[in-house]
Structures are given as C-alpha cells and as structure tokens.
Amino acid sequence: MRRARAVTPGGVSSPVRAFGGVGGDPFVVERGEGARIWDVDGREYIDYVLSWGPLALGHAAPAVLDAVAEAMQRGTSFGIPCEAETELAECIVQRMPHVEMLRFVSSGTEATMSAIRLARAATGRDAILKFDGCYHGHADGFLVRAGSGVATLGLPNSPGVPHSVASHTLVAPFNDPDAACRVARATNGRLAAIIVEPVVGNAGFIAPDPSFLRALRTIADDTGALLVFDEVMTGFRIAPGGARERFGVTPDLTTLGKVIGGGLPAAAYGGRRDLMEMMAPSGAVYQAGTLSGNPLAMAAGLATLRALTPELHARMAERTARLVTGLRAAAARRGVPFTADSAGSMWGFFFRGEPVRNFTDAKASNVDRFRRFFHEALARGVYLAPSPFESAFVSAAHGDAEIDLTLERLDDALGAALS
Ligand code: KE4
How far apart are CA 278 and CA 124, in angstroms? Predict the structure, then answer.
C-alpha cells in the first residue's frame, strides 16, 4: 500500500476500497476462487463483496474462465460489430422484456450518464430527480447527496461539479412518495427523469416500501418525466428478471452493469425501443465507447447469465435469506439493536433497532459498532463491505458450508465487537 500510495491517490483505483469507512489499511488481494479470496500475506477470507457485485458465480468461476479463454484466442478487441454483443443483448432482452433494446458501455457510470442524456433529449427537459443516499456513478449530475463512496467519505457532494450542472439535480428522501411528488411538481414541467435504485444498495441495503416504486411510476406519468431504474447493482441479483419482475413496476429505461460483465468491464442502458432508437447512429443523441461491447466482457457476461438459471437464483436467494436470518438471531441473542434484510442474493445490515427506510435512518445507525464488527469479522476470515453505506452479496459458490461457517464466525465477531 505504501508503494501504491506513492503513485495513485490513496493507493486505490476507486475510493471506497481504501477502508475510509472503517479505518485501517486495506489488505492487498493475491487471488480468488469460488467464495474465497487470499491476500498477499496468505490470509483467507470468505468474500461477501464479490468485487462490489459482479461475481454472481464467485471468483474464477470455471464457466467464465473457459468462455474468456476461448474468446481470447480470437483476439481481445475489435471495435467492429461482433456476434458476442448480439448474443448477450438477446439474452438480457429475453430475461428483461421491458428492455426492448439496449446499448453496451463499459461502466455503470457511463450507463446512467447516457440514460439521463437520452431522457433529457426525449423530453426536452433538464431536471432530474434522484434520492438521498442513492449512488448512480460519478457523472457530474449524480454527485449530489450521493451514497456509496461519497457518503462513506462524508463528502457533501464533490468539488469540481459546476453549480450549473448540480442545479438540475433534485433530491428527495427514498420511500417518501409525497416528497417525490412535491419535488416533481415544483419543477413545473422541467423534469426529464426520475432515477432510482429500486432496492438501494449504496446507502447500505434499503428495500422499497411496497407502494413506493408504483408511486414513482405514477408521478413520472403525471409529470411527463421518464422513470429510470438503475439496476447496475440489483440487476440479476434481486430477481431473475430484475426489479420489474420483483415489484411489478415497469420503468421506461433501465441501467445494468456488474453481473452482466461477469467480472469484466461491461454495463448497458436500455428500455423502450422508441427511446433507444433515438441513440446515434439510429437517432441524434450521441454516446460512444472504444471498448463498448468488448468481446471478452461479453463472453464473461454471457457465461454468467447462462449459468444464472431461475433454479440457481432461487438457491442463492434462499442461502442469502438464511444468512440474514442467522445474523438477526445472533444479534437478538446478544440484545444488540440490529436490522438486516435481503433481496435475492443481495443483502445488508445496520446496527439499529428500528427499520431503516431512508438514508437519514441509515446515517443514524451505530457506525462505530459497524466499524468494530467489520474488523472483528475480517480478523476471523469474513470480508464484508468496508462501509456501512454499501451492500453485500452472495455468489453461487457460497454453499451451505460457507453460510454455516460465516454465521459461526460472525456470531463470534459480534461478541468481540460488543466487548
Ligand atoms: P460503475 O461506474 O462503478 O461501474 O457503476 C456506478 C454505479 C451505478 N449505479 C449503481 C446502483 C451502483 O451501485 C454503481 C457502482 N457501485 C459501487 C459500489 N457501491 C461501485 C464500487 C466503487 O465505486 O468502487
């Protein structure tokens, strides 16, 4: 880390990896296999961060390695239409029929940035509404009361974002449809899009109230704004068909990332055909990318989605629910104010007795206790997200044995964190 810090800011390629939310130095990873990773000092951890979500099949999944190895023999990048892009696009469209057409990009940030540009072009409006604590990547307009690393580092917003850009971004509390309605109506017809993480993963894990997403759909329809589900994290995690399958609400645009690249750089934005055909070269809205649709990333994503059958998804969801239930029980036995929840293979917890319904609740949780628990868990070989404002994941490689071992270790870590 000393060498890394000499040549890169904070010694990391992305701020949240620097353990700013929990203190201390991050370990340096050597390799991963299945549910486990090993650091350069030979310590082994059961990994629940899984590269912040992409590794639905676990580390170095044979299906992914074989697919990438096979694709690599034909070259690594062309910048020319390649069948692999169409195969992965067809697979996604088949699983998420409301995504009638999509465009691949290389990161979630590009996906959400492009979806908003499209929404602004389609409506001729500038304002966007996001929710406090939600994180949609680091494009200028999103760094307003964002979650994830922005919240972890306690940054109010980010320097370098022109006021003229940030002023188009309006913010309301998650799970507060009345506030969202008030903010939307106050724009007097200037609202281009409402963008939301259908299950929040960047303020810690926060599930939507049953009626919240439906209310956003109604507000979007009433004000002429588009509804954008940012499923970069929830996509192929909370249900085989994503948020629309889980909640029955259809967005106009959806952004995806993480899992669809299977651990290699790939993301996408898509949705209604009439909107997507506005994107160049079919239409006039410009967006481009040298490595968009990279054949190795397409191969990794396709191998991942093909393995993620509804049966496997159900097994992963069941194991995730068992982990969360076990953690709640351990906290209850020790009389610790604690709440935990899951959706499919995505989960999270807070040291707080009352339910966490929005970012204000999340920030009111006992973050000092989180920090102690994080380090006690790490010392016992369980790697949780190094921030109270992140979520955790389970992969296909987390079998019953891993869940049992994790519950044993985390129960002990909880005891140590309280002493
Ligand atoms: P990327 O640009 O990091 O690929 O995706 C941005 C993004 C967009 N939307 C949602 C819902 C996201 O969760 C993300 C990225 N998530 C963070 C973890 N909370 C990535 C980890 C990091 O920043 O290093």
Answer: 13
Q: Is the pTM of this model over 0.85?
A: yes
Q: Are 123 and 192 in contact (CB under 8 A)?
A: yes
Active site annotation includes 230: yes
Map out the domains of the chain as residue ranges. Answer: 62-307
Name the residue of 52, 258, 264 whose CB sits within 8 Å of the most ligand 1 atoms, as the mutation to test its pocket: 52
Residues with CB under 6 A from ligand 1: 14, 16, 52, 107-109, 112, 135-137, 148-149, 197, 201-202, 230, 232-233, 257, 267, 390
| 130 is annotated as an active-site residue | no
Burial (CB count <10 Å: 0-12, 13-18, 19+), residue 15: middle
Distance of alpha carbon 199 from alpha carbon 415, whole angstroms: 30
Those residues of the chain that have pLDDT short of 50 are none
Structure tokens at 64: 């992914």
Of the candidates 71, 360, 412, the one whose C-alpha atom is nearest the C-alpha of residue 352 is 360
Give residue-wise pLDDT tens across range 205-230: 999 999 999 999 999 999 999 999 99
Closest C-alpha to ligand 1, atom 15? 137
Closest by CA to 119, choosing from 190, 43, 48, is 190
Q: Say how many CA atoms lie within 13 Å of 78 toward its Cβ.
A: 14
Please, which residues have CB within 8 angstroms of residue 84's CB and are 6 or more apart in sequence?
A: 71, 293, 295, 298, 299, 302
**Which CATH code for domain 62-307?**
3.40.640.10
Active-site choice (45, 48, 135, 383): 135
Q: Which of 132, 230, 252, 361 is catalytic?
A: 230
Instruction: Tell me whether residue 135 is one of the annotated catalytic residues.
Output: yes
What is the rounded CA–CA span in Å between residue 230 and residue 256?
A: 7
Ligand 1 atom nearest the C-alpha of 267 is 4
Beta bridge partners of 253: 228, 271
